[in-house]
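Dear support,

We are seeing what looks like truncated structure output for some complexes. This example has two components. We would appreciate it if you could run it in full and send us the complete token output so we can diff it against ours.
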Amino acid sequence: MKSSCIDTIMLARYIEGRITDEDRELTERHFSECDACRQDFLVASSLIADEDIPDPEPILQKESRTILQQLKHRLKEDVAALCEWIRVVPSELAVQPWFPYFESREAFSPVRSAADTAPDRELPMHYAYHKKTLNDLEAEIYIRKTADENASMKVRVTKGDDKAKNVRITLKQEGIRDVSRPLQHENVLFENLIFGNYHLVFIWYGKNQKQIYHFQFRLDETGISEKNDRF
Amino acid sequence: MKKLSKEELKALENEWTDCRALEKLVEHYWRMVYHTVREAFVRYNAPFTKQDIEDMRNEVFAELLDRECRKLRLYREDGGRSFKNWIKLIASRTVGMYVRKKDRPGVFGGDYLMPLDEMTKVPELRDEIRRLEARQSLHRALDCMEKLPHKECLVLKFLFSDGLSVPEIASKMQEEENNIYQIRHKGVKHLKDLLRQIEGEQR
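Here is the complete output from our reference environment:
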């Protein structure tokens, strides 16, 4: 089975020789299997090495302003919501009403370790919070980074001011078994999420019919991005 | 517009990777990206029009600015050495993805079929048989190549599929030339053994 294609960072590291031996082996193995990535590598490395590509004069400031406005306008039509990881100490969260729902009291206590010189020092955490409207329902998604490329996620769904009833939430990821849970308490917890692409499916069993809502997103080192075609 | 000094550029790179001063990014790299995109089309052996280059140039900048300049931030987070090379890499990959797109519009798209009345020569049966036999031998060799250890397979693909010389391969893989010669020698020997094995099985 062919390994997954090389991402841009890995390609850059390979071309610049800033790659570990293990990654080099993986990358070269992939190049031997994937014509497209091998071709990308050959073209990119020859462009980077080519000193004949001119370093032209900059364009006028007025021109660049117009171009930038056009690009931003175009991106507004395509771009999806992005929530970046927010770095905060737990005591700062306590003033916001939402987070105590999701975290135990202990999470907001200062963390002490032998290495700490200041006893009251709190360790920062990284979280992302995203709200999504699903017709009559509203989903609030709270994701907390638990390790370098790992996170846990809690999802709450409300109708008006109350917890939505008869809702089932399924988390899908390619190659991994779906995890599906009914919204019985205030929220649904999904743990051990590795950075990658996910698909949340909300099924609401209304009085007369079933309604299904989808939210596709990507978790990575920058935060959470809603997926669209450009992904 | 005057060109920026190295220090001015470095200061601006910090701003760009923070998604700021983007006008300066466009100002400085607009033309360079145009040239890089054109060169990328050439190196992908893909036919192109002026419109293709302009579209791809816009696409490259859209990629850089998209999702709050995610690709610019990735450069900084990875501790890359050359911002200019990062831009060239993004440009190259953007063109690569476009060239491989099956529904690429226009004459150069993957779905383009040559109309019968544009075919000027009807091939002879004898030539076609020879061509078919050569293709079959080539496919056999390519299938056997996939069974080689990955380093030997890669070197042979660089040599025979991509047309690189041994010094070029050594430079790209950051290996000694002697190593590449040895890998080539082993690879060719293994390949011959595999092909002989297949021919023996077929008789």
